[in-house]
Write a structure and sequence with these properties.
The chain has 12 helices and 15 strands. By secondary structure, the protein is of the alpha+beta class.
């Protein structure tokens, strides 16, 4: 089955693919373009049901806003925009966490309109990130990153001045830095069906993240694990707000007080979502059975078949596992065929794609070694 894909650019992971019919469209995630793309595609296949899935925050946002005007054969599965907007905005998300008793890092909401006060209540270093990731990237500046780390108050003030001088209109999130390397980070992927029932819950332990300006925080190596102590609080928050669709939480374990602390929730499946399917919990099957066939699957809420997902070489994955004290477990998964890079798929090996993948894997290894060196020199 060949899926159709649309996006803003012809990027490596989807180019020269034999399993995706991809079309690059300028401004594909904008409100005057995305609805037209969906409508034109749906009308070209009037006898088919078209399942629309957004793979980025802005696509999800525009699908939710425009879906009432889609043709009748289009199926989408996102909650009301007002809830999606509250969860996507980190400021209102942390307010919901406080109401639901979910722990998160000590947080200060900075709003330039209030006079620029910095009554933080916690010590440096500081994590600095936008409340609104969409408007963040719409107002670029030299040195802009997905997440900034400032070592002292002077650096924090300079960064904030730069951000607002370049037109960013929303509040900024300033948080305490939680010590620990990438292996202290966890991701939780869930699916809530059209009746509001949680049908899928899969936890991944991140062994390596991206450390580039735009990719910081994206998983590069993830090991699926069974961690039931995370389930109740997270699902309680979403169930209380009548959540529908995919959700992905980013979490870090704080060894200082032995608590898991939530960073954010993405209202979509993560880039690393194949760690779920690799664990024999097919992430796509849930949404297709629910929305296309109207059938409800039995809930799958615990990992019984661990899987190692990676977009690095196996050598890099092993190095990360060794640092986390998980080398034996990872070696066993690799030896038993319970690991994989979804970009390297036997049915999707166009020569140009294989060349790109070799170059990409090499670059990932180089970036990892640079990151290791930065940590050693810190």
């Amino acid at each position: 089955i060949i899926s159709a894909g649309f996006g803003k650019a012809a990027s490596g992971p989807i180019m020269n693919s034999r399993i995706i019919d991809y079309t690059a469209v300028d401004r594909a995630d904008q409100p005057d373009v995305l609805p037209r793309l969906v409508e034109d595609f749906a009308r070209a296949y009037p006898d088919q049901r078209i399942l629309v899935i957004g793979c980025g925050d802005n696509y999800v946002r525009q699908i939710s806003l425009a879906s009432d005007g889609f043709p009748a054969n289009v199926i989408r599965h996102y909650m009301e925009f007002s809830l999606l907007d509250r969860l996507a905005n980190k400021q209102s998300f942390y307010e919901l966490c406080d109401q639901g008793g979910i722990t998160h890092p000590a947080t200060f909401i900075y709003d330039e309109s209030t006079g620029g006060r910095l009554d933080l209540g916690f010590e440096p270093p500081y994590i600095v990130k936008p409340a609104n990731s969409v408007t963040w990237w719409e107002n670029p500046f030299v040195g802009q990153r997905k997440v900034h780390l400032e070592k002292d108050l002077a650096g924090l003030k300079t960064l904030l001045s730069t951000i607002y001088a370049h037109g960013y209109p929303d509040s900024m999130i300033i948080q305490e830095y939680i010590p620990g390397n990438d292996s202290q980070v966890y991701t939780v992927t869930q699916y809530y069906d059209s009746a509001g029932v949680m049908r899928l819950n899969c936890v991944g332990r991140v062994l390596l993240e991206e450390h580039t300006a735009h990719g910081f925080g994206n998983s590069a190596v993830t090991l699926s694990v069974d961690l039931p102590e995370l389930d109740g609080q997270l699902s309680g928050l979403l169930l209380a707000n009548a959540y529908r669709g995919y959700a992905c939480f980013d979490i870090k374990f704080d060894e200082r007080d032995q608590q898991f602390k939530v960073f954010e929730v993405n209202t979509r499946q993560p880039r690393s979502n194949y760690y779920v399917t690799g664990s024999n919990m097919n992430i796509t099957k849930f949404i297709v059975e629910d929305l296309v066939y109207g059938r409800q699957l039995e809930p799958e809420l615990q990992v019984s078949d661990p899987y190692l997902w990676h977009v690095t070489s196996k050598q890099v994955a092993r190095q990360c596992a060794s640092q986390a004290g998980l080398l034996a477990a990872v070696d066993a998964l690799i030896d038993n065929g319970r690991s994989g890079n979804p970009l390297d798929y036997a049915a999707d090996r166009h020569p140009a794609r294989r060349l790109w993948l070799a170059r990409y894997t090499y670059q990932q290894g180089r970036k990892y070694q640079e990151y290791r060196q930065d940590v050693l020199n810190a």
